[in-house]
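ligand=pyrrole-2-carboxylate
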Amino acid sequence: MTNLHRIGVVDSHTGGEPTRVVVSGGPDLGHGDMAERLAVFRDRFDTFRSAVVNEPRGNDAMVGAMLCAPVDPSCAAGVIFFNNVGYLGMCGHGTIGLLVTLAHLGRIGVGTHRIETPVGVVAATLNAPNDVTVRNVPSYRFAKSVAVDVEGFGTVTGDVAWGGNWFFLVNDHRHDLTLAHLDPLMDFTWKIRRALNRRGITGAGGQEIDHVELFGPPSSLAADGKNFVLCPGKAYDRSPCGTGTSAKIACLIADGKLAEGEIWRQESIIGTVFEGVGRVVDGRVIAEIRGTAYVNAEASLLVQDDDPLAMGIRG
Ligand code: PYC
């Protein structure tokens, strides 16, 4: 008889970017901190990651969030974010989706909650059932005006910054940041990413820069700037990207273009907006990112052991 495994999930979207929180049926990752559990996840249960977020159950934009019991009892939860190709240190839109999901499940109420991630503890405030502010891990610019030769585009200059993930932030380019130009945006940013890898341009400690962010003018008065964010698995972020907005705020403050405590409204490629502010603490920028999320499914994923694609389509 066919064996059926059930994975309980709650889906949400944050400014259009999906988050799938695994609430039951996940693998035993042990009792280490989130970085240690991430290593167990990656080494022993990577097929589970693929089963949850890849086609045919998921899609390239889907970010998974493995809900874990926290190590520190003062934390409301631990979480490991993952995507179509691997794992994320932190995820801003995912943390906003996680809080709205936990509220939907009746596990948290309005107020501030500490969440353990593989790159440190973040504090997130549920302001109202769909409205969340995330106090991210410290962000900073690692390198300013780095030039890289990009196939077909010549020299492209950008900043390397950390916002919980590594970003290459490009202000000077000739691209129109609209969905109508998605193909050229994907092509350009993917070629930048490949060029960075080829030239050995990395974040601190040789860490790979796996997100590329383009900036341009906003499409409405409701924002200060618009972005296009290429995520690691060749998907684009539908939201303004929480970690990317944190990296941007760190660069703006470093350049003296944004004051501490001044609001930066970051518009995404689809027109959704995050509000962010930054404050400098010990030379790093503590960014707070505010956005909205809505739950849109509560489901059991079914994994049938005789399904040849039970663990998803892997690239
Ligand atoms: O919101 O930080 C974020 C994020 C990272 C990748 C996709 N979204």
